[in-house]
Amino acid sequence: MTTKAWAMRTSRDSRAHRDFIFGELLEGRLRQGWGWLPEQDLATVSTRCSDPAVGYAGLSNEEKMAWGHWRLLGEGSHAPEDAIRTGDTVLVPNVPENGTFTLCRVTGPYRYDIPVAIGDLGHIRPVEVLTPGGVAYTSDLVLAPLRRSLSCRSRLWSVDAYTDNVEAIAAAVASGDVARSFAQGTDHLARAQRATADKVQASVTELATTITEPLRAVLKSAEWEPVLTAALVPLMRDVEVIHTGGAGEEGADIEIHVPNPFAPESPWVVAVQLKDYEGEIHESAADQIEQAITARLDGRRGTGALVAVILAATKAHPSTRLSERLAILAENYRVEVSCVHGDALMRVMARGLFMRQR
User: Fold this and answer.
1) pTM for this predicted structure
2) Sign (positive/negative) of CA torsion 184, 185, 188, 193?
3) Tens-place pLDDT, residues 220-240
4) Structural domain harbouring 87
5) Which of 77, 87, 176, 330 is 20 to 30 A from 248 in CA distance terms?
6) Together in a domain, 144 and 118
7) Which CATH number is 312's domain given?
8) Distance between CA 103 and CA 154 in Å, rounded?
């Protein structure tokens, strides 16, 4: 039988809930919520749901809430091939702490037991915990595709696509490699440098080709921003490179401030918007570029004269419509607007990271 890998969010309504759930995991019990009444036992609900005289429509609201977790029934469910079965691996996000997860292996069938201490979380699958200390989302061991999947807001979803990574994490922890598992990786720049340190070569072109996949494996979305910022710094003498991404970014993830000898208090500014997309970049990205322009023109981003805006993309290329809109923005605002993507961006990062490591 082929085993599967799952990610399952459970309750973290309070510190007491999280501590209880983690304590139960260590005792071999993976618990899930929507189980505070005897009639929410999934085995009972399954029987009623399959009864023609009742069916799903005849279930109470409380039973329907519980039935959302029918996959916990595993081999006893109506569709065991799509359910959590003995031998499957389950990743539990944000346990034992926010930004960490626990891996466990299912060892037995579903049962139902409402804990007196909590009054909920009655759904149980017996498990063996594989990572008793938790694993940081940003650990070197957690590759970007798996980390990206952890932004899913569902209660339960498949992580079969990342089984190799999940098994590698479990194997590393089992081998005693706990330092890398738990402590490292919270600094995106440090993680990127560790991923590329043994790849540095004299040729920038060769280096760009060599580091592309390692960087894409350990960085996702906004995590590219501080790394690109760091790569630009050694390439820009006497130039300030500022990571501005996040809340209130006003369309610019990075700003490059070039000294203005005629007005030192008002530097020339290059705004950079960074995208970590696949395929084509939709024309809606032009809205952020325009926001970066108007934020400077309106004075919302402080002093400084905007001289250029760059759309940087780690993989994707601009759609035809986006290229047209960028050209229109350049003409309307009399500001240089350009797009640097794929290999061209990786050559910039290769030069910068190479110079930082010399």
Assistant:
1) 0.64
2) positive
3) 888 999 988 888 887 767 788
4) 5-183
5) 330
6) yes
7) 3.40.91
8) 18
